Amino acid sequence: MKYYDELVITCGQQFQHPEYLKESLELDKELEKGKTCERMLMDDPDYQPHRVPAPPEMPENVFVINSLFEANINLRKLLRMVSDAKQDEALRLCATNRVVVYGDCIEAYSCMTALLELGLSSDKIVFVEPFPSEDPAELRVNCFNDEVVDERVQAAIAKLGIHVHRRSRFTGWHIKGSRVVSLKFMSPLHAFRVPCFALFYYGVKAIDLHAFRAINECGLVYDGGLVVGPTFDTNDPHIYAAGTCVRYSRRLYAKQHLHRFYCSEDVGEALAKLFLRKMDPFVMGDPDIDPCPSDILPRYNSSLLNFPHASIPNLTRIALGKVRRWQPVQKFESPVIHCATFPGPLYYMKVRKPGPDIPMEVEMSLPHQGHTLTTNRFDNYCRLKLDALHRIVAMTCLSHRRVSHEVLAATYGKHEAFFDKLLQRYMMNKIDDLLEFFVQPWMAALYQETFDDLLVDIYQQDVGTVYDIVKSHFSLFDAAKMDLESSETKSSSSSSRGLDLDASCNVPSCGFTSKEAQNLGTFRSVLDRYIARTSFKDMINVKDVDIPSECGQAEATRNEARGFWNCVGGEHIVNAHLARYLDRNSVCNPHYATYKPELL
Asked: Which residue, 204, 245, 304, 446, is most buried by CB atoms nearer than 10 A?
């Protein structure tokens, strides 16, 4: 027995025994079909509380793998079984008594790759795929969410000679002694048996049965997952939970924001921040530090928290500061990354934005989806997705050569202009292989963690400081403007004066005077004002105007922003920051380009 002050449950979900909660799940299916619920009332003397049954025993030749440690143990056990069964003709591994891999997930395909690398011949492997699901409410989308990837993986499996059964579901097995000798499957047209030397099962994925029993018997609320609130809290004030084993309370209406849809590192970091503020004595003793900061609780305002109404007691109202904002559940920003090796070998990597994975065909049919870039040189498939703002939001790769997922994942969220105008080069047919393009040595600086610090330095560059440096440029601009205005007649319009100004003095209009330059703030704040100049509401309500295109702002706004950039010498400022960045980091990375000393 262990005692605790605070308990954190992060048991997650794992692949389980084929008969995981078999009776309870079958009873739930019958109740959904209309069967009468036969339950005994709690005031009946014969009433006994329902107990979660103990997990069934696993046959010695059935393997359920959930970690690299278990994979190593089970593969060694398989090799030992192969060597021990060579003396027995009835049990030995052969073309009629094969290793069966069951599942419709990336892990099942990776398992076949591991078996081939272990030395098993492809004719001794059977792959049973239970796709699509029996549930009519689920979408008929393969585990890759990409038809091109699915076709090529299935073609590689067929080329190797692996025997495949499609649309077949596991229904039972025949056990002789402590080993499974045959498996029962059901296809849409008939039932069949498959002789089994060993079974790798990737069917049911759920919470561990021992953890489920502990949660169920200690009074915690479980509703398809351990129910938690916005800050990982359960109905027990000293127990917290996070990860794929939890779900939010139904009153939060957050079914689309469960932890399993986000990067687990982000979820763990948010939980650690919460406990740091809760248990760090230096933080607990500071009255100015918010115990529930706004960077942990996400960013939707609520008008109900401070609403003065008699039905809401004063004690239940939350006094939020000007900086604090509230929303029901947390959201995370890091991308979701999947990496695997498939039979062939084919090296697979997928980077996508956090949240539920929308079917590709559905997503492509939605408006304002940006651009999709695809290359397929030497059967090295790469699909790149840009959003309407030209940021990289998804990438799928299936290649015959290894790809660095650390490098390619670093492209997520960056604008395509960082990569030397990637979209323009692609449309000009200058990029025939995106995989080779992203691993060029000159891009090494973009993939380092310190590159984000460089962007922050540029965004936080104060415009007033820039004005002090280039105030002679502003003086030239003001003098030219005054001379031009004195020479113009009163009938000239302000718009024509602006055009003549740009043509005569060759200095583009920047949208503000030299006296206003010191009060504009940072580069980021000025650029945000230009971006927000034309809102989506204005685009809908206003007609016959210069409406922004899908990929940027209106032409007038772009010209004004370009004039501001030229006035303050933006290119020189960026070059100076980049030169300092290369100077600081060139020792640790020899791929960095050499900078020009005059830019410092």
From this structure: 245
Which residue, 518, 515, 519, 499, is CA-closest to 563? 499
Q: Which residues pair with 174 in a beta bridge?
A: 182
Q: In which residue ranges of the chain is pLDDT below 50?
A: 294, 296-326, 469-482, 484, 488-509, 511, 514-515, 536-552
d(CA 132, CA 169): 10
Quick one: how many helices (H) and strands (E) in the chain?
A: 19, 18
What's the pLDDT at 370? 87
Q: In order of start, what are the domains of the chain with their CATH numbers?
A: 62-203 (3.50.50.60), 336-439 (3.30.390), 463-470+508-572 (no CATH)
* Distance from C-alpha of 175 to C-alpha of 346, rounded to nearest angstrom: 36
pLDDT score recorded for residue 493 = 42
Angle at 202 between CA 184 and CA 214, to 5 degrees: 110
The pTM of this model reads: 0.79
> How is residue 102 annotated by DSSP?
E
Cβ atoms 326, 297 nearer than 8 A:
yes
Instruction: Determine the distance from the C-alpha atom of residue 296 to the mean position of all C-alpha atoms in its chain, rounded to a whole number.
Output: 18
Work out the angle at residue 85's Cα, subtended by the Cα atoms of residues 81 and 89, and round it to the nearest 5 degrees: 155
Put residue 219 in one of left, alpha, beta given phi > 0 → left and psi -120 to 50 → alpha. Answer: left
Task: Determine the length of the chain.
Answer: 600
Residue 441: which region, alpha, beta or left (left: phi > 0; alpha: psi -120 to 50)?
A: alpha
Cis preceding-peptide flag for 59 (omega within 30 of 0): no
Give Cβ neighbours of residue 404 (< 8 Å, ≥ 6 apart).
439
Nearest CA-CA partner of 509 in 484, 488, 491: 484
310-316: long-range contacts (C-beta < 8 A, 24 or more apart)? none
Q: Which residues make beta-bridge pairs with 462? A: 522
Give whole-number Cα distances, 573 to 454, 456, 457, in Å. 12, 13, 11
Contact in structure between 41 and 49 (CB atoms under 8 Å):
no
* pLDDT for 345: 92
The encoded tokens of residue 453 equal 């610090």
Q: How would you classify residue 263: left for phi > 0, otherwise alpha for psi between -120 and 50, otherwise beta?
A: beta
Q: Could you give the C-alpha distances from 214 to 11, 221, 226, 489, in angstroms and in order?
A: 12, 11, 11, 87
Burial class for 165, CB neighbours closer than 10 Å (0-12, 13-18, 19+): middle
**CA proximity to 538, closest of 560, 553, 525, 558:** 553
- Could you identify the residue written with the tokens 């030749």? 61
Residues pairing with 380 in the sheet: 377
**Cα(225)–Cα(241) distance, rounded to whole angstroms?**
10
Measured distance CA(162)–CA(125) in Å, rounded: 6
Give the orientation angle of helix 570-585 with respect to helix 450-459, to 10 degrees. 150
